[in-house]
Structure formats: structure tokens, C-alpha cells
């Protein structure tokens, strides 16, 4: 593995990321295995509040590792606040982690069990930092909302994403994706676990306040299959078994 190249194989996967990114062996690396009975309730944590404006969605792209939907983050039209956050964090993008053909792809696990996929909505602290890049390496720079995807019935809104995948089949491809409100991808309950962690891929900065929702959303096997067919340069398999942690705090509102 040289330069910025990384993946999930034997020669460029998580087990050797530390060679180029020493922080991979840090104390706040993500993802983790969430063990609910080891989580502690913090009465100071309130509910999270999500205010998303569909007019802020810009485009959908394939970066070679995942399909990413980006948002206009020049102002506070789309933000997350409350919970463990001291101020609003602006939505920058969201992406999914799929497991590839026949594999379960969530990064976090719950008592060792993984889900079909995991959605990450990435927000940054625009109150303290001038740019997303600056925030991405700061201890309180990012807030990532993690949502598990479980298999079952069709998700009525996910088709808006899967229908667009054919337009971003290849690494580097990008197309307009306007008028999408990610609130449609949220479960009915916003109860969550939270902990201080890191980016789950290089450069692995320990800059993330993780907010992982307890309730998954349901998607069909067909929807998972369509996503699996998007050719990425890596297979996005779960890493939580290789970077687990028991030092976990959370709340149950």
C-alpha cells in the first residue's frame, strides 16, 4: 500500500493501514462492536434534532470506495444538533457501506452481529472550523450519524438512490442529484448510542462524535442486490471485528 491507496484486501486492508496511518493503532478508532449492556445512560444527553433542507442536495458520485451524495454546506440549512453536540453541525455528505456480493456490510456491529449495510451521514463543526477539511482532523470536528440497514420489506425511498446508481457506475463518475431530503432514510425512533471515535477509512482521524441509531431501517434483498452490483474498486466489508472496543458510553432516551 503506497501513498493514498487503500482498500480491504490482504495487501491494502485494515490490518496494514497502520503502516501509512499510525493513528490506526490509536485508542479511539472506529468502528466498534456495540455491547448495549455495557453502555451507560447519560442523563445530560438529550434527543438529537435533524433539520435537513432538500434544496441542499447537489450530486451523487462514485469515489471508488462508495457512492456519495453531497450537499451544499455553505450555511446551516441542513444540520444536526442536540444529543452530545455543543452546537449545530452541517451536513456535508452521506454514503453507504455495503458488504459486496453475499456479504453483510455494516461497519459497526451490535453484540457481534452485523447488518446488511450501514448509512453514514457526515456533518462538520462550522462554528469552530472554517472548512470541512480543517474540521476533519480536529477532535470535535465531525459528527457522523450511523444508521443500520436490515433486510425485509422494500424501503419506499431508497429507490431514489438505487435508481441513480447506473449513472455513477465507474470511479470518478458524478451526476446531479437535486431535491433529496435524507430525512426520508431515518427510522421512526432516533434513540441512539454515542461515543468519541474516528473516521473508519484512511486517514482515520480521531475526529468523530459518533451517533449510532438503535433502530435500523428495512430494505429489501432486491435493493441490497442492486447496490451490490455497483462496481467499486474495493469490497466494503465489516471491520468492527478487527477494531472492537468495550469503552462505550451511550444513552437510552
Q: Can you walk me through this structure?
A:
- It comes from Scophthalmus maximus.
- By secondary structure, the chain is mostly beta strands.
- It has a single domain (14-228), classed as Alpha carbonic anhydrase (Carbonic Anhydrase II).
- The protein contains three helices and 13 strands.
- Strands 2, 3, 4, 5, 6, 8, 9, 10, 11, 12 and 13 form an eleven-stranded mixed beta sheet that branches. The protein has a two-stranded parallel sheet with strand order 1-7.
- A hairpin with a 4-residue loop joins strand 3 and strand 4.
- The longest helix has 8 residues, at 221-228.
Write the layout of secondary structure elements.
Layout: E1 33-34, E2 48-51, E3 57-62, E4 67-71, E5 79-82, E6 89-98, E7 109-110, E8 117-124, H1 132-135, E9 142-151, H2 159-162, E10 174-176, E11 192-197, E12 208-213, E13 217-219, H3 221-228
Parallel strand pairs: 1-7, 9-12, 9-13
Antiparallel strand pairs: 2-5, 3-4, 3-10, 4-6, 5-6, 6-8, 8-9, 11-12
